[in-house]
Amino acid sequence: MSIDELKAALPDYAKDTRLNLSSITTTSSLTGRQLWGTVLASALATRSGLVIAAISEEAAARLPAEAFTAAKAAASIMAMNNVYYRAVHLIGDETYATLPARLRMTVLGDPGVDKADFELWCLAVSAINGCGRCLESHERVLRGSGLPREHIQEALRVAAVINATAMTLDAEAALLTA
User: Fold this and answer.
1) Which of 29, 109, 140, 144 has CA 20 to 30 A from 15's CA?
2) How far apart are CA 98 and CA 109, in angstroms?
3) Domains, the chain
4) Whose CA is closest to 72, among 104, 101, 36?
5) How many other C-beta atoms lie within 10 A of the C-beta of residue 4?
6) pLDDT at 125
7) Nearest to residue 13, comparing CAs of 175, 168, 157?
8) Which residues are named in the active-site annotation (predicted)?
9) Given a cut of 80, is residue 165 above it in pLDDT?
10) Is 131 marked active-site?
11) What angle do CA 122, 48, 31 make, to 5 degrees?
12) In the prediction, which pLDDT does 33 show?
């Protein structure tokens, strides 16, 4: 399955999602690597088998192997970090923020690709996973590296559209079996 097939599979009530899915992959101001790494990391964060299969196929054709692997690493590390740091934040006792996390996170220091690209992918995954603390941290690093707010916003838009696509298609599949 391809992104075009994902678009075609979206029901009429999700026309906005279909149009947004088309535009995020064709009118981006992100570099190709930034865009497709964000699309892939976002797809993985949705946990939707259908969306992951379709997007990973296209991303593999558009990303060098090291970027494809790094986007997968971003989704994996943020799946762990988003749970931990969101929980620490939501507990409301700042003492937890001063304690060492004691979670292995070496990929953040050496992701195998440009650090700003990796941070962008981590930001998109954090948006899908709803971790405010991680969003703040990655946005700060990205702004410090010179990435304009418009590019950061674009990564957030990609995450939102990929997430909406996954939710809609998974919901439709569940409704068919209900």
Assistant:
1) 29
2) 20
3) 3-177 (1.20.1290.10)
4) 36
5) 13
6) 98
7) 168
8) 131, 134
9) yes
10) yes
11) 40
12) 97
Q: Which two tokens stand for residue 121?
A: 């992918």
pLDDT tens, residue by residue, 37-75: 999 999 999 999 999 999 999 999 999 999 999 999 999
CA angle 144, 164, 160 (to 5 degrees): 10
> How far, in Å, CA of 156 to CA of 38, rounded?
9
Q: What is the mean pLDDT of the chain?
A: 95
pTM of this prediction?
0.95
Please pick, among 41, 51, 75, 131, the residue that the annotation labels catalytic: 131
Distance CA(115)–CA(20), nearest Å, equals 27
Task: Determine the length of the chain.
Answer: 178
Instruction: Please give the structure tokens belonging to residue 54.
Output: 């379709």
Residue whose entry in the numeric block shows the structure tokens 């996170």: 105
Token pair belonging to 81: 């970090």
